[in-house]
Write a structure and sequence with these properties.
Chain lengths: 225, 226
């Protein structure tokens, strides 16, 4: 699987040298300016973002905050990277909420190990599920399509998150009734109606919910062009 | 105001006392060298668990594993602490799944910042939040009080989630409005209406939601006024 990371640094030299090393492990997008990164952001699902601390226009801390507040941010780990390994810089990074501080002068294997550890850690902790152009924030119970919030009913929200959690497997109707309606009596048609409504609300989604003709499972599949 | 609770396991009681003093103004540190009866201490519902790596009876990694398997464990972040910050120790710590590795020679400001960082990260991402006898489970879309399930509406879940995520700090009504309703124009009284319906559904909770001016608090129930 391709793993993309983004690396923002105002020094062309650093970008080239470290970008080259990182590319042994990841696919790397390098950016000389934070502003440019913030504009191009929506295009890719990064696994981690590295931000240089000392930059002239927007420094690392400002960049960090802009990323966190960006609607397209997928909740991936953001690491501050710098050769300024002072106690002030480290404390400020952790206070802001950056997941780690990388000293640019340690050896490259250690840096990669540090980044990998954070990526794995965040996979387990992840509370924002991105699914193509759809994003669910489970901590706020909200759904976004192309960065616009979609209003969901409680039942729709439950159906959708159960389906995404089970993906790539489907869910049987019986299981869906158990999970969403706590086993109360529900007509099959009710499920179909909810799925129909979900699909029409999420008309611009790259995926859709279907009921398999072969085994009757409810599943999420990529839309056919 | 409640301070963050840290539970610290170390075979050297002096280390525990030393850390207690160093962090006294920001954290409530309790600890024990009686590692074999660790389960008793998990009762305290800590915000973070700190484990020494080199201990004679059970080493830190083993203890870590045992804690994760315990039904008493509340899912809070866990970190290792050691006087030996070798790459092996660091690597192993992250491999077993710890949230961080702290070297004993860290300056106290960084130590504190790292601890708070992980507690806050956990609070902002976790889908299960426990306050006393109540657990909010956002993955299952419901609330448990004393292990009994209580159904809430979607908006009630959202409101409770925002408030509990801020606990023990108070949170402003504006924040609740912004996080739950976003751009929708709603009146502040809508928040109050949700709070009172929550309070009546969560009657068996040891705490309740209260508002004063523009702040929302989670407070232990007092019998004297009712």
């Amino acid at each position: 699987m391709e793993r993309w990371i983004a690396y923002i640094d105002d020094s062309q030299h650093n970008l080239e040298a470290l970008g080259h090393f990182f590319s042994q492990e990841f696919k790397v997008d390098c950016y000389l300016e934070s502003e440019k990164f913030l504009k191009g952001f929506p295009q890719k699902q990064y696994e981690a973002i590295l931000v240089d601390l000392h930059m002239p226009v927007m420094n690392g801390f400002e960049t960090y905050e802009a990323i966190v507040q960006h609607p397209a941010y997928n909740g991936c780990p953001i690491l501050i990277i710098s050769s300024d390994d002072t106690i002030e810089a480290r404390v400020r990074s952790f206070e802001l909420g950056a997941v780690d501080f990388i000293n640019r002068s340690v050896d490259i294997d250690q840096m990669i190990a540090q980044i990998n550890a954070k990526i794995q850690y965040f996979r387990k902790k992840r509370s924002i599920i991105s699914f193509g152009n759809l994003k669910i924030d489970q901590t706020l119970l909200k759904v976004f399509l192309n960065q616009q919030e979609i209003t969901m009913t409680f039942t729709e929200m439950k159906i959708l998150s159960n389906l995404l959690r089970a993906y790539p497997e489907g869910i049987s109707k019986e299981k869906m009734i158990e999970q969403v309606w706590n086993d109360s009596v529900v007509l099959e048609n009710t499920i179909y109606t909810h799925i129909f409504n979900l699909n029409s609300k999420l008309g611009n989604w790259l995926y859709e919910i279907r009921i398999s003709k072969t085994n009757g499972m409810i599943e999420v599949v990529e839309k056919r062009k | 105001m409640r301070r963050w609770k840290i539970l610290y396991f170390d075979d050297d009681i002096n280390q525990i006392e030393a850390l207690k003093d160093l962090l006294a103004d920001r954290f409530n540190v309790s600890g024990t060298d009686d590692v074999s009866s660790f389960e008793r201490y998990l009762d305290a519902n800590p915000d973070l668990i700190l484990i020494d790596i080199h201990m004679p009876l059970i080493n830190g990694y083993e203890l870590f594993y045992k804690i994760t398997q315990s039904p008493m464990y509340n899912g809070c972040p866990m970190m290792f602490i050691s006087g030996d910050p070798s790459p092996e120790n660091r690597l192993k710590s992250f491999q077993v799944g710890a949230d961080d590795f702290l070297s004993r020679d860290l300056e106290i400001s960084e130590l504190a910042a790292r601890i708070v960082n992980k507690i806050k990260l956990h609070r902002s991402t976790t889908l299960k939040i426990t306050v006393s006898n109540l657990t909010l489970d956002l993955e299952m879309f419901c609330v448990y009080i004393n292990d009994k399930m209580i159904s809430l509406t979607l908006n009630e879940l959202k409101v409770l989630g925002v408030i509990l995520r801020n606990y023990p700090k108070a949170c402003s009504r504006g924040l609740v409005m912004e996080k739950v309703w976003g751009a929708e124009a709603i009146k502040p009284s809508t928040v109050n209406a949700h709070m009172s319906s929550l309070n009546s559904k969560l009657r068996e909770w040891s705490h309740e939601l209260r508002s004063k001016k523009d702040q929302v608090f989670v407070l232990p129930k007092t019998n004297c006024l009712t």
